[in-house]
Amino acid sequence: MIHELRVYRCVPGRLPALLKRFDTITLKIWERHGIRQAGFWTTIVGESSQDLFYLLEWNSMAEREQKWTAFQSDPEWIAKRAETEKDGAIVANVTNAFLQPTAFSSVK
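Structure tokens predicted for NIPSNAP family protein (108 residues):
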């Protein structure tokens, strides 16, 4: 199992719109595509209170490529994303990293 850590830095003031989009739209589409989330976090104390961190679980990089590509090209996702951004961009930038657990990690 590998985990993908994704960090979304929001346009100032737009974090509530991003959280609403995940809660009401994105997670339902992910479920249809078999994308598994391992958790979501916002920052209480840290560099920016405009960040959303989340982990996705993948069996392999091949699984990630197949499912993420299908999600990104899903017509419903494309339409809903555009609709939620009609008042302007929500996310300023996205970073991601693929993580492999160590032998002593409690999360495998």
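DSSP finds three helices and four strands in the chain.
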